[in-house]
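Teaching soon. Got one?

===
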Amino acid sequence: MNNPKNVSIVVPVFNEQDSIIALINEISIKLEENNIKEVIFVNDGSNDLTKQKILEAKIKNDFVKIIDFKLNTGKSAALSKGFAHASGDYIITMDGDLQDDPSEINKFINKLNEGWDLVCGWKKTRKDPISKRFPSKIYNFFVRIVTGIKLNDFNCGFKGYRASIAKSIFLYGGLHRFIPAILGNRGCSICEVEVNHRARKHGVSKYGFSRFFHGFFDFITILFLNKFTKRPMHFFGGIGSVFFLIGVGISIY
């Protein structure tokens, strides 16, 4: 590659004390190959030894950086802060539970070098229990139909961005799940790469059933912002028309 791009890795973490050191060791092997200049851990209010583990690793590895949140604010806020502090030309995001394989980082970089704005990971063979896989399939199918974006895995945390694109996203709540929809609406180019997904070795998943409930309202937010920002009356007028017709029907009755 004639003009290698600097790469920043952003890893939001919450109570992943047993995975931190192993993840750093795996990424360190890929530093030179992928021109990785920094790995930014965003400690999202962990109440275990996650912060201490990162600080210990930081002493031995000058590429390790930490952003520390005193309270758990959620993945969207953690990603936003990581994006803001990243200095690389490309930004790769991955989860801190060791299920994302650092040896796959080059796949994202190769696609970004081709000119794509966002490269999404696809956990084609997902090593999670069916209680997570089945709802995820329904979610991906629904979002794919409504948005028209042809991705298999919208919610995979393993993604690659051009830095300017990542820094332009305003994330809050659970909107990190809809990053492809947000960027797709802006006309950004999006592609997908199949990635190796590994079984969780330590800790437990931080996402329960409630995320699907909250995710529905986040999806409504995205739908409104994408479809009706410039035509709000198409949204409110449609709802108003329905209630108007119901009222007329009741009055006639």
